[in-house]
Amino acid sequence: MDTKKFTRSYKLNLYGIALLLFAVIIFPFLVPSNYFISMFILIGLYGIVCTGLVVLMGHTGQISLGHAAFYGIGAYSSAIVSGKYDLPPLMGVITGILIACIVALLIGIPSFKLKEHYLALATLGFGVIVFTFLKEWTSLTGGLNGFFGIPPFEVAGFTFTNDLSYYFIVWAILVIGLWFVNNLIHSRTGRALKSIHGSESAAESIGINLMTFKLKALIISAVFASVAGSFYAHYISFINPQLFEVMTSIVFLIMVVIGGSSSLWGGLAGAIIYVWLVELLKDWVPLLGFSTGGEFEIVFFGVLLVVLLIFKPKGLMGSWMEKKLFLSQKKNVQNKKGAAL
Amino acid sequence: MESLSQLMQLLFSGLTIGSIYALIAIGFVITYNITGVLNFAQGEFAMLGALLTISMSSAGLPLYLAVIVAILIVMMVGGLFERAAIYPARKSSVATLIIITIGVSFVFRGAAIFIWGTQPHSLTPFSGNTPIRIFEAVLLPQSLWAVGISLAALAGMYYFFNKTYTGKAVTACVMNRFAAQLMGIKPEKMSFLSISLSAGLGALAGIIIAPISGASYQMGLMLGMKAFIAAVIGGLTNAPAAVLGAFLIGIIEAFSEGYLSSGYKDAVSFAVLLLVLFFMPNGLFSKKSGKRV
């Protein structure tokens, strides 16, 4: 791949991020509805998790079936640090990040020693273990009854009390995250990750240390998930272990697959589409005469997942970006030809 | 004496659940080796088998007939799944295929909710409920059925893979897909065959366990995952080792339930999975088999 394409997609993404930032700022003024704001907080949180997952899945080609556990680690760290020990919420967020990093290392090192898809298995096992501990360690986590009374997030004397403030901070984090990932995937690290996805042996033979780079990708995605979890806990102020079950990990996976793991925007696009589809299904399923809406959702997303992977394995954003880049490249070539003539 | 009877009791329940895991784990191993897919929908076949049998036997069909018909239906579902979801995507990456099987397991689970609802159903035991007492421990007849049927099924599998032409063709594909292809064996056909066979085994497992722990739309997930652990402990490529792994997991689970707490049961088995992955990624029994060769 020539550097030209990289700089092009880099710039394109940067414009996209600027546009997004603008849209984020004006959105609450255009649509001053609490329903939409709270919906977009959720989208933003999912978007953060999935943007991290994009690095792991799309750029390194590894599957995680346990990211809900990292999300849960963030949420419970914040809850326990700020709710139980009355320490500043920022410390909860940082604790979550640290624990997520350590855990990612602990799972990553052994599973990356192995070829193929042992990470999927290891993260799956890890997800169940974390869920069990959240459920059973009642003195610390509150068990299945959940953890009540998580204080609102506050930093530098400013307390985040209403939805709008959470909307801004969540989307600010998402924008920073996207900017970071954009830089990452266009850096040497990003190219190394891409080459690992392409062919592990080829990457290794040009001197890329598979272990280090795969670990980096896993840690980045774990941190993203943990941060999102922390803010979820502060925003909702009540959490229980079921929120961080294996199913949630699979939901994150679905979002990334829908959005397309090969594009920077895949995570956010997937989160938007997922949340929007869930809302849509809530409205439509009763009209079709089914009373069990939540279950209909499961089938629907299952079919969607299978169909997408068979017919559009790059996801929606992936296909779109590819077309866009391909077309612009073609134009470039034509322009050059024109100039030469 | 008290502790001995408890020990025996836990051992029995471990062997019972282990035999269920064994049936599903073999399906995993067969599917994995022929198609390269870790089939996350494997446990759902058990769920479908159990619920179909319950429906048919409550509709008045004799139990043995219900069992046979249910297994056949699930085998057809398995074949359909292979043709509809695995076959069209057989050229994509393993990661994609794994996610496809997750999607399919969603579809099965959702379909089960539509047909059977969310509440659990129960199946009457195959032969009464009078417990048998051995060494102060109580053994339910259904446990004997479970162990007996799975051992019989395992023997049947052994015969199939080693003595019949089709079975040998499947084995050939497991050993070396390319070489098998050169010998005129169609891997696509074997893939179809192996997935429907594993589906049948899974259905059998579900039917056996239904009288013990009931059947509901969500039973497949955990059963599948446990069987999965068993298969990984066995090294994923070796069916007899997977069976041993399954009994091991069953026993570990029973003991951690008995001596620790039932809440931590799942965590213990997954911790075993992680430990095996980290320290003996080729499976617990890999050395033994290596020596034998």
TrEMBL record, chain A:
Instruction: List the subcellular locations.
Output: Cell membrane
Pfam families, per this entry? Answer: BPD_transp_2
User: Where would you find the membrane-spanning parts of this chain?
Assistant: 12-30, 36-56, 68-85, 91-110, 117-134, 164-185, 217-238, 250-277, 284-311
Keyword annotations of the record: Cell membrane, Membrane, Transmembrane, Transmembrane helix
The superkingdom of the source organism is Bacteria
Q: In the UniProt record, does the keyword Transmembrane helix occur?
A: yes
The way it spans or sits in the membrane comes to: Multi-pass membrane protein
Q: What is this protein called?
A: Branched-chain amino acid ABC transporter permease
The record lists the organism as Fictibacillus barbaricus
TrEMBL record, chain B:
**Protein keywords:** Amino-acid transport, Cell membrane, Membrane, Transmembrane, Transmembrane helix, Transport
Give the membrane topology.
Multi-pass membrane protein
Q: Which domain of life is it from?
A: Bacteria
Q: Where in the cell is it found?
A: Cell membrane
**Which species does this protein come from?**
Fictibacillus barbaricus
Q: What is this protein called?
A: Branched-chain amino acid ABC transporter permease
Q: Which family does it belong to?
A: Belongs to the binding-protein-dependent transport system permease family. LivHM subfamily.
Q: Which Pfam families match?
A: BPD_transp_2
Main localization, broad class: membrane
**InterPro entries referenced in this protein's UniProt entry, alphabetically:** ABC_transp_permease, BCAA_transport_permease
Q: Carries keyword Transmembrane? A: yes
From the record, give the transmembrane residue ranges.
Answer: 7-30, 36-54, 61-81, 93-116, 137-161, 192-215, 227-255, 267-285
